[in-house]
Batch of 2 targets.
Target 1
Amino acid sequence: MRLAIYPGSFDPVTNGHIDILEKTTRIFDKIIVSVVHNVTKQALFTLEERVELIKESTKHLDNIEVESFNGLLANYIDEKKACAIIRGLRTVADFEYEAGMATMNKILIPKVDTIFVMADTKYIYLSSSGVKEAALLGGDISLLVPPIVKAGLEEKLKDIKL
Ligand code: ADP
C-alpha cells in the first residue's frame, strides 16, 4: 500500500491544504495528515481542534486519516511505514525552507522522498496566517477556508479586541 504523510501546522486548515489533499489522494492509496506542533509558530487552535477541523473538512475524501504527533518526523514516518512525505509549494519563497527540510529528512530516512505538489493558482497567496489576519480584521474569508473553519475562526476571534 502506498501510504504518504502530509505533515504541517494546519493552524487552521485552508482550501489550499484541501486542494493538495484532493490531488494527492488520487495518487496514493492512503494519506495521513499529521498535525504537528511548530515551535517557531504561536498557534491559535489547539492540536485537537486542528485535527477535528481537518476531519470535518475532508469528509468527501475516503482514503484519509488525521492525527497529531510530537517528535521527529523521520521516526514517525518509519513507524507508519510511509513511502513519501507530501508538501505543498506556493511561490519560490517556500522553496528554500522546503528544500532544507526535504534534504534533512532524506538524510534521516533515505528510503523516503518528499513529493512537492504545486499550489493551485487561486491558492498561491493563501496561507493560514493570512487567513487569521484577514478574519481578525473582519474580512470575508468564505472563499479561503471550509465553512467549519470560518465558524471556528469567528468563535476564536470574537473575544479578541484590537
Ligand atoms: P508548516 O507545516 O510549514 O507550518 P502549513 O501548516 O501552513 O505550514 O502548511 C503545510 C504544508 O502545506 C506546507 O508544505 C505548505 O507549503 C503547504 N501549503 C500551505 N498553504 C498552501 C496553499 N495555499 N496551497 C498549497 N500548499 C500549501
Target 2
Amino acid sequence: MTTAETGISRRTVLIAGGTAVGALAVLGGGYWLGTTVGQNIEGTPKVGTELGSGKEPEILRSSGGKLTVDLIASYTEVTVAGKVARLKTYNGTTPGPTLMVKPGDLITVNFTNNLGEPTNLHMHGFHVSPSGNSDNVFVHIANGETFTYEYLLDTDHPAGPYWYHPHHHGMAADQVFAGLYGAVVIEDPKEIPVTTERVLVISDISIQSDGNVSGANMMSKMMGREGDILLLNGQIQPSYSTQQNAVERWRIVNSCTSRYLSLSFSGGSAVLLGKDSGRFSTPRQITEVSLAPGNRADLLITMGAEPVALSYTTVPHPDAMMMGASTQEYSNYPLATFTPDDSQAGSVDSIPPQQSGPDLRSSEIAAERAFTLAMPAMGGMGGMGNMNGGFTINGEPFNMDTINTSVSLGTVEEWTIVNSTTMDHPFHLHVWPMQVLSIGDNSVTDVEYQDVVNVPANSRSVVRMNFDRFDGLAVYHCHILDHEDLGMMGIIEANPA
Ligand code: C2O
Ligand code: CU
Ligand code: CU
C-alpha cells in the first residue's frame, strides 16, 4: 500500500467509528484532525475573520498579444487558517496565479516540475490544438524537468473563465487535491462594465495533523474524494470589502477534485452570464447555480448596503447512505462574505449584447455515438479490492495506446452519454465545447455550451459538438478526478478532413 492510501481521510475515520464534533470546532480549526463527520453545518460566517482580509490569486496579464509565464510546481509550506500545511503549489501559492489573456494571444508557459513525481499541465476548456507542446495531456514531465508549453488562442476564442491543473494519468486527483490549480480568464472582446472584478476559486482539501495532505482510500476514490475543509482562494471563509451598490463580476471556478457545488448569493442580486465558455445570449437572474467538478460560472452580483455571502449547500450523494459514508452536510455555509464600506459605487453602464455559440440543433450530424459510463457497484465490498478495470467508458478502461473514438474535422456529432451507475458523473471533453441538448429528462431550450456536463445517475445527457478545427489526440473523461485516474477516460482522435 502506498503512503497515499494510508492517510487518514474523513471517510476512513467514519468507517472506524469516529465521533462527530461540533460545527464550531470545524469553523474554529477542529477540522485539522480530519474528524469532521456526521454533522450539519449551518451558515454563520467564521468569527474572527478580519474584515476585508480576503485575498485573490496574483494576476499575470498579457500585453501586446503575449503572456509568458514561469510556472513551478513544487511542495510549499502554506499557511491555511493559521496552521502550516505542506501543499503542492504553482509558484508557491494555492490557487496558482490567474492568467488574464485575450482572444488572439499566445501564452507561453515555462513549466518546471519540482514535485518529486511526474506531472504535466492542462488548460481546461481551451479550444486550442491538443498536439505537440500545446494542450497535450500525453506530455510527461519528470521530476526536475522543464517543459515549454505554447497555447495559441484563435482570435474568435470564446471569452470566459477557464482553469489549469495537472493531467498526468493516475495522479490527477492526488495532485489537484493537494493544491495544484489556478484560474485563467479570457477577457471579453467588448468589455463588460463593472465596479470590481474578482476570481473566486473554490476547492476542498483534508490536511492531517502533521500538515500533510490526506490521501484517499478505495471507498473515497469510488465516491470521489471530498475534503474536510472548503477553501475559497485558498482561505477558509475569507472576508472581502466592497462598496455599496457595487456591481461585481465574479468568475467562480469549481476546482474541487470531486465535489458538486450548489451556490447561492444571499443579500445580493445575481445575474449569470454563462457557464464554462458558454455565454448566454440573455443573461439570467438567478438565486443559485450548481457547478459540477470542473465547471465555472461567470456572474454579475449587485450589492446593496448589506453584506453578501457566497454560500454552499451540500448536493446529496445518492450512494452515501449505502456506502455508510460521510453525512457531513452543509446548508448555506458562507464560503466568503463581501461587506460594503460606507462608500457608494458609481453607476455602471448596462452590459453590451452578448452572443451565444452557434445552435448545432439545426446542423447535419455526421455521427451519433453513445458512451456508457460504468463503475463497480456501490456497496459491493467484494469488488473493492479490484477496482482497476472497473471504471470504464463503453466497457473499456483508459489505455494510453488505444484510440477509442475517431472523428473528422469539419463535422458535427451528437453524443449521448449514458450513466449506468447509481451516482452522477460530470462528463468532460477536451478542446471542443459541447452544446447541451438535454440533461437527464430535462431538455435545454436555449443555446448552452459547457465543457463539463453532468450526467445524472441511471440517466443520460445528450450533447452536440462541432469538430471545426485542431487535429490530433485528446481525451474525454469523468471529472471526478478519482474516476478519471481509475480509468473512466477515453482517447479521441480528430482527423483532418
Ligand atoms: Cu479539467 Cu481533462 O480536465
Ligand atoms: Cu479539461
Ligand atoms: Cu465519475
